[in-house]
Design a protein that fits this description.
malate dehydrogenase; globular; 16% strand; 2 domains; alpha/beta; binds (2S)-2-hydroxybutanedioic acid; NAD; six-stranded parallel β-sheet; L-2-Hydroxyisocaproate Dehydrogenase, Chain A, domain 2; Lactate_DH/Glyco_Ohase_4_C; Rossmann fold; 43% helix; oxidoreductase
């Protein structure tokens, strides 16, 4: 019996994610929670011929608690999205309180569930979630993930675009470590499998092209902003209508599918943003890097992260990018932790 709770399900990520969950046929129960619309979305999804029973809960009458009751997996996409000119950090003021309130209820209702945070800024909202669970005395780091899968998806996709021709993005596996915003996103092309035949000069725009604020929409759509600023490309292109939704739902679902596969006994690994000191193998990485929260490849088992894998050997240019990533990440982490400790 697998139940997933999607918190923020009426949003532009939550709704396509709920569709992917329902059509996948890997769930017995899907509960949706949001401040509007979810009873209707649930009814709509219930006309799809897969076995999952879908229910939708609004805030009145303890709706969040009802949505979370019995959940094995919780995915939080609730919160506001970026508009042009905003960074993910600009969302913290609003989204931090939303995450705290949701995790107060997670702690009370389903402390053993595996919780996945999509809500930005992930680098800071995951520490908020962790500190909320810790305050309630139920923090189990192996069961809390910041979802960074979209960076992994972009890393292989953008490299395949740069290779041109018939390169299939799915053919390449590129580890992406660090965090989920700007320079904290560090794709490790030196560890790509199979090797990607691009020079450092060709890889530079795939990883990070300076954000060309002055370029025309037409040019923007023809140009990649690189893995580090892929999110900005979508924000700009949507012209005020929000940020990534369908590709984020796709990536979130890929992560959730891995969790379910692990619960069914398969051996799986994915990159995710975790609290390193609490995950087996993570303490060494935390000591090496000097940060507690970091996205690394994790082996996933029935109870969440079973092992954080070492970051491996980096190229000289990746070492430089890591330094920048760590410096930004330290600020982001302390923003989240201080919010809860204030
Ligand atoms: C993304 O990477 O596309 C998302 O984190 C949304 C955003 O604000 O960029």
């Amino acid at each position: 019996m697998v139940k997933i709770s999607l918190i923020g399900a009426a949003g532009q990520i939550g709704t396509p994610l709920s569709l992917l969950c329902k059509t996948s046929d890997i769930f017995d129960e899907i509960s949706l929670y949001d401040i509007v619309h979810v009873p209707g979305i649930a009814t709509d999804l219930m006309h799809i011929d897969t076995r999952a029973k879908v229910s939708g809960y609004l805030p009145d009458d303890g709706g969040l608690k009802k949505a979370l009751t019995g959940a094995n997996i919780v995915v939080v996409t609730a919160g506001i999205a970026r508009k042009p000119g905003m960074t993910r950090d600009d969302l913290f003021k609003t989204n931090a309180g939303i995450i705290r309130d949701i995790f107060v209820q997670v702690a009370e209702t389903c402390p053993d569930a595996i919780a996945c945070v999509v809500t930005n800024p992930v680098n800071s909202t995951v520490p908020v979630a962790a500190e909320t669970l810790r305050k309630a005395g139920v923090f189990e780091p192996t069961r809390l993930f910041g979802v960074t899968t979209l960076d992994v998806v972009r890393a292989s996709t953008f490299a395949a675009h740069a290779l041109g021709g018939k390169a299939d993005p799915k053919h390449y596996k590129v580890p992406v470590i660090g965090g989920h915003s700007g320079a904290t996103i560090l794709p490790l092309y030196s560890q790509a499998e199979p090797a990607i035949d691009l020079s450092d000069e060709q890889l530079a725009p795939v990883i990070n092209r300076e954000f060309p604020g002055g370029l025309s929409q037409d040019h923007m759509l023809k140009t990649r902003l690189g893995v580090q600023f892929g999110g900005d490309e979508i924000v700009k292109s949507k012209q005020g209508a929000g940020s990534a939704t369908t590709c984020m739902a796709y990536a979130g679902f890929r992560f959730v599918k891995a969790l379910v596969a692990a619960q069914n006994g398969q051996s799986v690994s994915e990159e995710a943003y975790v609290y390193l000191p609490g995950v087996p193998g993570g303490q060494e990485i935390a000591a090496q890097l000097g940060v507690d929260y970091f996205a690394v490849k994790v082996e996933i088992g029935k109870n969440g992260a079973s092992k954080a894998l070492p970051i491996g050997n980096l190229s000289v240019s990746e070492e430089k990018l890591l330094e920048v990533a760590l410096s930004d990440l330290k600020t982001n982490i302390s923003t989240g932790v201080s919010f809860m400790r204030a």
